[in-house]
Write a structure and sequence with these properties.
Number of strands of chain A: 9
Radius of gyration of chain B: 19 Å
Number of strands of chain B: 1
Oligomer: heterodimer
Strand content of chain B: under 5%
Distance between the termini of chain A: 24 Å
Number of helices of chain B: 2
Structural class of chain B: mainly alpha
Structural class of chain A: alpha+beta
Order of helices and strands of chain A: EHHHEHEEEEEEE
Helix content of chain A: 10-25%
Largest sheet of chain A: 8 strands, mixed
C-alpha cells in the first residue's frame, strides 16, 4: 500500500457541498462516491443529482434522514441513472420525485459492498485504493465544534449518525489519518474536510463502509 | 438583541465555548484537532443532532477479504 493516497490528486473528487439545514448527508455521500468511481473509470468528473436521490429513494426519508446502504440498494435494484446536478438541482428540502425516461441520466449503480472494517483499517486502505472513495457512517456529535486538525479523542464508535466520503489517507506523518469529505460547506473544518486518526476506529470510521461498482 | 431567540442563541453559544475548553484540553500535539467557534456554535447539541446527524446506521458484516463484485 502507498504511504499516502488522496483521490483528490487524481481530480476525481467533486468539490465540497453544503447540505444546508437538511439531513441529506446520506445522499451526498452516496452521490459523491458514484461521481468519483465514474471519474476513476475514465469519464469526465460530473456532479450528479443529490436531490434526485432525496426525492426518489422512497425507503429513505429525504431531509429527515436516510441510510447510504438503503440508497445504494435502491439504486442497484432500480438501475436508475442519476441525472446531473444542473438538470435536477439541490433544494435542501424534500420534494416530489421527478421522472425521466429510462435512458436519460448519466450513470447507474451495478453493485455495491458494505463491510465492517473495525480492527482492519489496513484492509480498508486497500479497499480505498482498489475501489475508489468510500461511503462511511460515523459518529459526528463532536464535529459540531471541529475547526481542523486530526481527530484523535472525543469521538465514539458506538452511535453512528452521519454519512461521509472517505477520499484518502496519509501515513507519512507522526499521526496517520483518514482524509474525509464532509457536506457542511467549505467553511467547516479543513476547507470542508475532516482528518481522523487511523487505527482505532475513531468516530466509527470503519464500522460501516460501502464501496460502489458502476 | 432583546428577543427570546437571541437570549437562547447566546446561551447555546456560551455553552459551546465551555465545550471548546474541554475538547481542546486534549489537543497537545501540533496536528491535534482544534475545536472552537464555527457556524454551529449557536445551536444546541440537540438542534445540531436533529438537523445534521440524520444518517441511519445499518450494521454491516465484518470484512473478510477483497472480493470481485457480483
Amino acid at each position: 500500500l502507498p504511504a499516502k493516497l488522496d483521490w483528490r490528486d487524481k481530480a476525481v473528487v467533486a468539490p465540497v457541498q453544503d447540505q444546508g439545514a437538511c439531513g441529506s448527508c446520506w445522499a451526498f455521500s452516496v452521490v459523491g462516491a458514484i461521481q468519483s468511481v465514474r471519474a476513476i473509470g475514465g469519464s469526465q468528473l460530473v456532479q450528479l443529482s443529490v436531490q434526485q436521490l432525496i426525492d426518489c429513494s422512497f425507503q429513505n426519508a429525504g431531509c429527515s434522514g436516510g441510510s447510504p446502504s438503503s440508497a445504494l440498494r435502491w439504486l442497484e435494484q432500480t438501475r436508475l441513472k442519476l441525472a446531473t446536478q444542473s438538470e435536477y438541482p439541490y433544494q435542501a428540502a424534500t420534494g416530489i420525485c421527478r421522472f425521466f425516461s429510462p435512458s436519460h441520466g448519466v450513470v447507474a449503480v451495478r453493485n455495491f459492498t458494505a463491510h465492517d472494517f473495525s480492527g482492519q483499517e489496513e484492509a480498508m486502505m486497500a479497499e480505498l485504493l482498489q475501489r475508489g472513495p468510500l461511503v462511511a457512517v460515523v459518529d459526528a456529535v463532536s464535529w459540531q465544534d471541529y475547526l481542523g486538525g486530526i481527530i484523535q479523542h472525543h469521538c465514539s464508535s458506538h452511535y453512528s449518525n452521519h454519512a461521509v466520503l472517505v477520499v484518502g489517507y496519509d501515513t507519512t506523518g507522526n499521526i496517520p489519518y483518514w482524509i474525509v469529505q464532509n457536506s457542511w460547506g467549505t467553511t467547516w473544518g479543513n476547507q470542508g474536510y475532516v482528518y481522523i486518526k487511523m487505527g482505532g476506529n475513531i468516530c466509527g470510521i470503519a464500522d460501516s463502509v460501502a464501496a460502489v461498482f458502476l | 438583541e432583546d428577543s427570546e431567540e437571541f437570549e437562547r442563541r447566546y446561551f447555546y453559544f456560551q455553552n459551546a465555548t465551555k465545550r471548546h475548553v474541554s475538547l481542546n484540553s486534549f489537543s497537545s500535539e501540533l496536528q491535534s484537532a482544534q475545536y472552537g467557534i464555527n457556524q454551529f456554535s449557536d445551536l444546541s447539541q440537540e438542534e445540531f443532532r436533529d438537523v445534521y446527524l440524520r444518517a441511519v446506521f445499518h450494521r454491516a458484516p465484518p470484512f473478510s477479504g477483497l472480493t470481485a463484485p457480483k
